[in-house]
């Protein structure tokens, strides 16, 4: 979505080789040795079919990684309403889920939330929009909660949808959609923000709830969870505390990246600091990634330079952020997950996964790799990048 477009608004000895193989087997499953990530190439699942999980996110639960994403199939078309900004679409089929213990090999678990083909009024009717599903696990309720961007084909509705399941592999029960934080001002509101005006969408949407398009959810160490969503006609992002059951926003929220037109949010935590990677708003076209850091999740967020370095850094290597995955048991190793959209053949969009490295300035850097593997010692990787 764009804000300014017409869219409404190895080693010396065998011991080390053995250690390397053992570490991979123990930490990532037995089939990982020799496997590698091939960013931007067709990525088949364990049944030999291309993985179909776009704009996705990953949940780690009891030794298994679950990758949820938009299932995109059928023909790509450009609705009349979206002609001015190139908002091509495919009909909703649902949210797909894949499981893996090593992050290389993914088993298709099927559609965990399906389109509702018989109910034209449903949010999940094929002609509607369902994007960027993210799932978190609630340790208190023992339920899996899916948040997603729900919209009308012209992207005017700008709502968040929520679904619930007792198992990571679904089926998820769709609970409905809403616009967050109706009737509540953000914590950092100013007097000027409250004055209605032609360009003040915060005040315009105060009563009915704030617009919410691209989104992500983040669970903090203390179990509190937060929703990040592109709001205010995509000009400004909001971060909102979720209720203890993770099913609603609480009304405690802040405006962040004010008028910076950011979307495709991905959030992670490292060494007690919160990091954000997102994109600018140019629809399916790639642009330069935005990186930011904060001591508190509500901000202030400080923007850092483009994390990408090298050729095609200005387009995030032809991709748009989707998620940042913390690797279990390696508290300082993170993988950047992005989509390489194919605007005119959306189901042929591909995935680009790259390791996030610490740069010498103490910030994260993304470099292109034609192929790469998970390191056996993430701390070494961090140290190496800093030198
Ligand atoms: C992108 C957004 C995608 C999708 C697309 C439609 O900016 O990140 O999730 O909404 O616009 O053009």
CATH topology group of the domain at 49-176: Tachylectin-2, Chain A
Q: What is the level-2 CATH architecture name of the domain at 49-176?
A: 5 Propeller
Q: Provide the low-confidence segments as ranges.
A: 1-31, 383-387
CATH class of the domain at 49-176: Mainly Beta
Sheet-strand content, in percent, reads: 35-45%
Distance between the termini: 39 Å
Overview of this structure, please?
With 387 residues, the chain is mostly beta strands. The chain has a domain of 128 residues: 5 Propeller (Tachylectin-2, Chain A), CATH 2.115.10. The chain is 7% helix and 36% strand. The chain is built from 3 helices and 20 strands. The strands form 5 sheets. It has a 4-stranded antiparallel beta sheet with strand order 1-2-3-4, with no helix packed on it. A 4-stranded antiparallel beta sheet has the order 5-6-7-8, with no helix packed on it. The longest helix is centred in the N-terminal third of the chain and has 15 residues. It is globular. The N terminus and C terminus are likely disordered. The site of beta-D-galactopyranose (GAL) has 12 residues, from strand 5 and strand 13.
């Amino acid at each position: 979505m764009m804000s300014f477009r017409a869219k409404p608004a190895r080693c010396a000895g065998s011991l080390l080789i053995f250690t390397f193989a053992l570490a991979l087997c123990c930490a990532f499953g037995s089939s990982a040795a020799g496997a590698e990530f091939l960013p931007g190439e067709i990525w088949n699942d364990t049944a030999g079919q291309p993985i179909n999980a776009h704009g996705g996110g990953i949940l780690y639960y009891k030794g298994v990684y679950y990758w949820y994403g938009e299932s995109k199939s059928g023909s790509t078309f450009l609705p009349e309403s979206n002609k001015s900004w190139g908002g091509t679409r495919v009909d909703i089929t649902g949210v797909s889920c894949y499981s893996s213990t090593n992050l290389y090999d993914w088993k298709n678990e099927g559609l965990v939330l399906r389109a509702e083909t018989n109910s034209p009024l449903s949010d999940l009717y094929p002609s509607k929009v369902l994007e960027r599903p993210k799932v978190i696990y609630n340790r208190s309720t023992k339920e899996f909660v899916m948040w997603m961007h729900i919209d009308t084909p012209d992207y005017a509705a700008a709502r968040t949808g929520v679904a619930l399941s007792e198992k990571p592999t679904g089926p998820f029960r769709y609970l409905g959609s809403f616009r967050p934080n109706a009737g509540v001002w953000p914590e950092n509101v100013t007097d000027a923000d409250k004055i209605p005006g032609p360009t003040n969408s915060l005040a315009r949407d105060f009563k009915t709830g704030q617009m919410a398009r691209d989104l992500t959810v983040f669970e903090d160490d203390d179990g509190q969870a937060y929703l990040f969503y592109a709001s205010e006609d995509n000009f400004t992002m909001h971060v909102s505390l979720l209720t203890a059951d993770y099913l609603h926003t609480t009304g405690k929220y802040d405006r962040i990246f004010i008028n910076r037109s950011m979307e495709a949010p991905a959030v992670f935590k490292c060494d007690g600091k919160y990091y954000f990677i997102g994109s600018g708003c140019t629809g399916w076209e790639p642009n330069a990634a935005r990186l930011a850091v904060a001591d508190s999740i509500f901000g202030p967020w400080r923007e850092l330079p483009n994390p990408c370095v090298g050729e095609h850094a200005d387009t995030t290597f032809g991709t748009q952020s989707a998620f940042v995955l913390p690797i279990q048991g390696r508290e300082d190793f993170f993988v950047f997950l992005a989509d390489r959209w194919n605007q005119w053949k959306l189901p042929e969009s591909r995935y680009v996964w790259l390791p996030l490295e610490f740069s010498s300035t103490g910030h994260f850097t993304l470099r292109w790799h034609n192929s790469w593997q998970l390191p056996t010692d993430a701390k070494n990787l961090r140290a190496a990048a800093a030198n």
